[in-house]
Prior knowledge:
The chain is of the alpha+beta class. The protein folds into 2 domains: about 1-70, no CATH class; about 110-315, Cyclophilin (Beta Barrel), CATH 2.40.100.10. It is about 25% helix and about 15% strand. The chain has helices spanning about 1-10, 15-20, 25-35, 40-45, 50-55, 60, 65-70, 140-150, 190-195, 275-280, 285-290; strands spanning about 110-115, 125-130, 170-175, 180-185, 225-230, 250-255, 265-270, 305-315. Strands 1-2-7-5-6-4-3-8 form an 8-stranded antiparallel β-barrel. A hairpin with a 5-residue loop joins strand 3 (about 170-175) and strand 4 (about 180-185).
Amino acid sequence: MHCHLLLLFILLPLSSPLSQSVFSRRCVLSVPALLVPSASVATTAIGSAERSCRERGDCWERGDWDGALGYNWGGRDRCDAGDPKCGSGGQAVKAELPPAPVSTERTTHRVVLSGVAGGGDRRFRFQLPLVLYGDAHPVLVSQLLESVQGGFRGQDRAASAPVRLSGGSGAVTNISPGGTFSVGVPSQRLAFLRENGLRKDPSFVPVARPPSQPSSPRGPESVAPGSVLMDVRGLGYLISGEDDTAFAALFEVAGPRAEGGGGTICVGRVDDMQVYARLSSTAVNKKIWGVIGEGRGGPPLLPVRIDRVEVAAIQGE
Length: 317
């Protein structure tokens, strides 16, 4: 009887006459034990408790959910969120970084994406430097440079505003199980409304995808981690869907288990593998299907926004 009444007690407000009259002292006192951490757990929740139960292998039995899931609380045992080697669970990543991509292509431009990731005590600023191969892929790199600088319109002069990665509109939009992450503008409409302080604008017209580049060569079947990938057809073709979200993936940064081919080609590389590793290991909002179903990618659990972009031409390489 106590078990049935306990469930009912959780569903009823404390002010309810029924909750005040039918529950025994035993039932009421059993609720905090289930819902509220004990004082001993609270005082030691600085990482040591979670680590100890994992060493013993009894996290589930002792009710230490954070330890069972691999998450660590607390100040002393947590690494600095701004350190590129600090993992999403609050512990320093000990795995070796993958080697930087190597290419014989001449680098023509250096692009630095600056932004903010996470929130609260997990918030940190980052700078992700890229170098691009403009001589080998002039059309694709030109489109990408337009989108990260003043804005990309292509041949669409009817659009209300260009697609622009800087100014807070750009973000890391998706992280795959293999560590590949996409960078782009999630929604042209929302970016336009935010930049202009509007609640709605029925007349808004998004930028359409540019004409595809059918003659572009396809990329190799394998790519190195940190490679910058674009669709061979041009900007806006990495994902399908409406024009409003067509540029949610302006480019991808290949992860350790990325597969090449499939219509993508390498147009550059990341120039700082520590920052690359930090962003590619960001916790993913898998939603319900990522928890109970097969592993899938998704947007970052906490936002990873880009607020500034710097571009410089590289001379003499």
